[in-house]
Amino acid sequence: MREQVKLFVAACLYYSGLVKLLRWWTERSGHRLIILNYHRAMGGDLRSHLLYLRRHYRLLHLEEALEELYRPDKEEQRPRNLRTALVLTFDDGYRDNYTHAFALAGELGVPITIFLPTGYIESGNCFWWMEAERLVGHAPVDEVMVEGRTYHLEQPEERDALARMIDTHLRYAASVSEREEFLTRVRKALAVPASIAVEETALPLNWEEVRTMEKSGWVSFGAHTVHHPVLGYLRDWLELQCEVSECRNVMEQQLGHPVRTFAYPIGGPDHIGTQALKAVREAGYEWAVTAIPGINTEHSDAYQLRRIESGVDHHWLVLAAEIVGLWRFFARLRKRYTFDIERDSHEAGPLSNYQ
Fold it and tell me: What are the residue ranges of helices labelled H in 147-193?
C-alpha cells in the first residue's frame, strides 16, 4: 500500500509538470552534476530507468563528468546539449552488474561506473552484509546462544532479532579481523553447512568479467576498499590506509591504468570520518563519492561528492521525482512538521489532553 501511494504521488508530480519544471530549472542554474547510486541491477525494471534518464539527461562516465565539472575553461567549452550531466554508479560489484546492467548499457548506449571491493572480487565470497539473513535463514537449529543471549529460532521475531544483532556487530566492527572472527563464531553456533548455495547474481564479479566490461567502453571502474569495512569505525589507522590504498594498487595491476575515483562504503558522514578523508587524499585519488544526498557543483568538495540513492525496484516515475529533489523536500517538510507537533505538545504539557 505504501509503495502504491508513493507511485500515485510521483505520478501526480510528474504529469502535473512539476518534475519537468524543476528539471528545466536545474539545467539553467549553471553547471550541475547528478550522481545516482545503485547496487543491484536485477529485481526491478532497470531498463525503464535507463530509457528515462537517456531521454532527459546527458549521461557520462564518472571521470568524464568530473573533468567537465571542474574544468577551468568549461564556460568556453560548454557542450551544446544543455541537459544536466548525470552519472549512474553501482556500488559493490554484484555479478548482476555484469549479467544485467552491462547488457543494458551496451544495448541502450548508456555509460555506467562500478565501484569494486577488490578482496571480494578475488575471493568470490558472499558479501558480509548479506550474511546475517542468509545464516539465520538456513540455520538447522531451533535454539542458539550468541553473545550471551539465547534465541528461539522457531519464532519469527526471534530470528529477526538475531539477524539484526549479527548485522549490527558486522557493521560496527573495529577491524576486518574482528568482523570475520565474529562471523566464524556465528556460523559455528548456527551450524550452517558451508555448502549452502548463494544466489549466483548476488555474488561478486570476477576479474575476467570486469575486464570484459571495461573493454566494451560502456563501463568504467572505481575503488571501494579491499574488504568493505565501514571506514569511520576502524580503530587502526594503518588498516584504514591499507584498505583505501591497496584497493587502488590491485585495481591498477589488474586493469593496467590509473584508478582515480573512490566510493566510501555505506557513505554517510558517520561512516566516513575525518581519517578516511585523509587516507583517500594520501592514496592519490582525485575524487571520492559519498552516499550523502544532493547535487554537485564546481564548488563541491572533490572528496565528498554527493549521490542520490536509487534502486531498480523504484518505478521510473519515483526515480524522476527523486532526481529533482522532491522526495528530499517532502522528507524535510515531514520531519519539520513532526518536530513542530512534538514541540507544541511538549510545551502545552499533559493538561492539554483535557482541553
Answer: 156-171, 176-190
Spell out where 158-276 has E strands. 219-223, 261-263
Which pLDDT tens digit goes with each residue over 258-304? 999 999 999 999 999 999 999 999 999 999 999 999 999 999 999 99
Give 253's DSSP letter.
H
Q: Are 258 and 267 in contact (CB under 8 A)?
A: no
d(CA 26, CA 125): 42
Please report how the helices 316-323 and 18-27 are oriented relative to each other, as an axis angle in degrees rounded to 10: 40
Q: Please calculate the CA angle 264-265-266 and round it to the nearest 5 degrees.
A: 110
Domain 2-122+205-324 bears CATH identifier 3.20.20.370: yes
What are residue 116's phi and psi, to 5 degrees?
Answer: -110, 130
pLDDT digits (tens, 9 = 90+) for 207-256: 999 999 999 999 999 999 999 999 999 999 999 999 999 999 999 999 99
Query: What stretch of H or E contains 242?
Result: helix 237-255
Per-chain mean pLDDT for the chain: 90
Task: Outline where DSSP puts E strands in the chain.
Answer: 33-38, 58-59, 85-91, 112-116, 143-146, 149-152, 219-223, 261-263, 287-289, 308-309
Q: Where are any strands of DSSP class E within 173-297?
A: 219-223, 261-263, 287-289
CA 173 to chain centre: 19
The answer on pLDDT for 348 being more than 70 is no
**Residue 107 pLDDT > 70:** yes
At 127, list the grid cell: 558479501
| DSSP letter (8 states) at residue 204 | B
Which cell numbers hold the place of 5? 501511494
Closest among 23, 19, 4, 36 to 311, alpha carbons compared: 36
